[in-house]
Amino acid sequence: MTKTHHEPRHTHAHVRTPLAVSVPLVNPAKRRAIFERLRERNPNPRGELEYTTPFELLVATVLSAQATDRSVNLATAKLFPVANTPAKMRALGEAGLTPYIQTIGLYRVKAKNVIALCEMLLDEHGGEVPRDREALMSLPGVGRKTANVVLNVAFGAPTIAVDTHIFRVCNRTRLAPGADPDKVEQKLEKFTPDEFKPNAHHWLILHGRYICQARKPLCAICPIVDLCEFRGKNFDPVPDRLRPPWTT
Question: Which one of 3.90.226.10, 3.40.50.1360, 1.10.1670.10, 1.10.10.10 gives the CATH number of domain 28-46+158-247?
Answer without folding.
Answer: 1.10.1670.10
